[in-house]
Amino acid sequence: MNDNSYTCNGCRRVLSYSDYPPVVGTEGHTCPDCSKGAKEIAAEVDWRLKQCGIDGEITLDYHTNKLPLIQLCEKYDYSESEILHRVELCVSYIEGEKRKDIPYAEWTKR
Description:
Number of strands: 4
Helix content: 40-55%
Number of helices: 5
Structural class: mainly alpha
Distance between the termini: 53 Å
Order of helices and strands: EEEEHHHHH
Strand content: 5-15%
Strand order of the largest sheet: 1-2
Largest sheet: 2 strands, antiparallel
């Protein structure tokens, strides 16, 4: 690889700066195709997290913001086991290629 090219963080292809201007991120470069797909996926994950209400907020704090478990317990007034259970439920609800066909509140009662 030379100074006129970069490796995309998404697809790992070596691309030319002049042919495929990268979207610069904090951890390197992403080609325009991968960047577009990543933005769509991020928007979908965000939408799904919002459907989970407080459990989505807890999951975001746990996985993205990396808040320690003790801090989550204090912030949300739940025990450690309840926090972990809620995170597990939320992740199970938001994962997968397609959206669940029932609301989160109904899904958690199964």
